[in-house]
Amino acid sequence: MATAGVSYAQLWAADPAAWRAAGAAWAGLTGLADRRSGALGGAAAGLRDGWSGGAAGAADTRLVRLRAELTALRPALIEADQVLAEFAARLATAKARLAAAVALADGSGVLVDRHGRVRADPAGPATERAGPAAARVGAAIRDALDLAGAADREARTRLDELSTAAGTGWVDAPPPGRPAPGGDPALVRVWWAGLTPAQRRWLVAHEPGLVGRLDGVPVAARDQANRLLLGARRDDLLAERSRLLGRVPRGPAEVAGLLRVGAALSGLDALEARLVAPGAPRAYLLGLEPGGEGRAVVALGNPDRSSRVLTYVPGMTAGLDDAPGELGRAGRVLARCAALDPGAETAAVLWLDYDAPDFLHEAVWPGQARDAGPALHRFQEGLRATHEGPPARQTVLGHSYGSLVVGNAAREHGLAADALVFVGSPGVGVTHAAELGLPAGQVWASTAADDVIRLARPPDELARRAVLGASPLGATAGVAGGHELWFGRDPTDPGFGARTFPSGRHGHTGYWAADNPALDGMARIVLGR
Fold first, then answer.
1. How far apart are CA 480 and CA 335, in angstroms?
2. Rounded to 5 degrees, what are φ and ψ at 419?
3. Residue 434 exposure: Cα atoms within 13 Å on the Cβ side
4. Three-class secondary structure of residue 331 per DSSP
5. Which of 146, 287, 456, 473 could be joined to 426 by an S-S link, Cβ 3.0–4.6 Å?
6. Can you tell me the distance from the alpha carbon of 455 to that of 259, in angstroms, rounded to the nearest whole number?
7. Is the Cβ–Cβ distance between 8 and 141 less than 8 Å?
8. Closest CA to 220 of 147, 160, 303
């Protein structure tokens, strides 16, 4: 059986990992392009110092043009990696669907030959009932081959476009007009769609700071732009470290700054290692800001091309140094989704684009959660605007203080989401799930029995305890059953109106442990099961 040019045998033999490795090899050439560009810059500077006249001017012009071509080549190399990685991902999904079809055949008294032809097993039981089963198996095989064929055609088209662009030149005139910062993602998407491919590549290459942060620009372009900025972001941190090291004597503020910069550099190193890792799923860098505690938005898999998308918002102390670990949590949910439904196309996003509280005295105030609301709203709207094909199922998950960020954003601004999930929550800023703007049954919550967040009683209760001479935290007896937490009603309380899912005794940060049923719960919500 074959469809759209991809045969059953070809799909069985296909090696997604090899395609992914080929893409990573193309992306690896960006370093070579950087080095060649730097060498040309040095050569041009040397010529200007020791050579003048018409010939010198012509040579300088030529070197500048060559450097511009190398600059424009870098996003094209990243794009080649994206195309091959996405082809590999869809190929892997098609193979999983094919394997599921064969497993269905094995359990249904149906035979599948090496060409993908389906027939009843004459030696099997109840052969008269094998006809409907054969039809189901045949349909499942066709579905897998259709997906592989579509992926093959699309990858070929995108690579042909890249090849054509290479032949006609990467550099084009800058496009007129720019969207305002923080603009409506739907309008940004319209603006981007109105540009020519050459204009888009020019913007990525020459204005990556604009493209990389605009909600409403497709994920692939944002990833290209932000990867181009990695070197500059590292330079910013190194320059800050040099400035702090140069201050003598150094007071507590400078020491704290040095520690922060060192942690941010370490986090950036780990994040870069994940960005260039050749294994699946490919990471997409959608935002990076090293200032302050640092911010990062990273997707595992391309949300624009996935039918199910998770956005994970972490809580207190999260910063650039924590980004790799927090991304690992999103990755564990994604891996469990793949285990539960290998044939689904799923992506997970770490959204750390807010100033998370660093200390408990900051986390008792909702101000940082309120400040994060507009940005989270725009990000989710951007995912809706740039998604390809039928709308994806969007799930937003908040942990700890991050659940308050999600709750405030949903209440005050609205979230483009089909489900909200709160784990280890101190309250989400509302008294009932109906205030979050989602349909009944699409708000979920879980808190472990041994999670210390259960002790986050409301301020008036803590004051009463203090007046009565009791410990402010009190004993856990009687606390776990209370309805009110620091930021409102406990979302796991039946009166809140959310659906709950179980969690094992893994404390405040163990919801992603492999043996915790909460991990299955989160994955099933993302899948819509």
1. 32
2. -155, 145
3. 2
4. helix
5. 456
6. 31
7. yes
8. 303
Mean pLDDT of the chain: 88
Under 8 Å between Cβ of 429 and 420: no
Question: Would you tell me the crossing angle of helices 16-50 and 54-106 to the nearest 10 degrees?
Answer: 170
pLDDT digits (tens, 9 = 90+) for 10-22: 999 999 999 999 9
- Residue 461: phi and psi, rounded to 5, are -70, -40
CB 496 within 8 A of CB 445: yes
Residue type, 19: W
Query: Which amino acid appears at position 63 of this protein?
Result: L
Output 431-436 pairs: Cβ under 8 A, ≥24 positions apart.
431/488, 431/489, 431/496, 432/489, 432/495, 432/496, 432/497, 433/491, 433/496, 433/497, 433/498, 434/497, 435/411, 436/407, 436/410, 436/411
Q: Report whether 11 contacts 144 (CB < 8 A).
A: yes
List, in sequence order, every residue forming a beta bridge with 419; answer none if it has no partner: 395
pLDDT higher than 70, residue 169: no
Query: Considering only CA atoms, which of 450, 460, 515, 508 is closest in space to residue 484?
Result: 460
Model confidence, pTM? 0.89
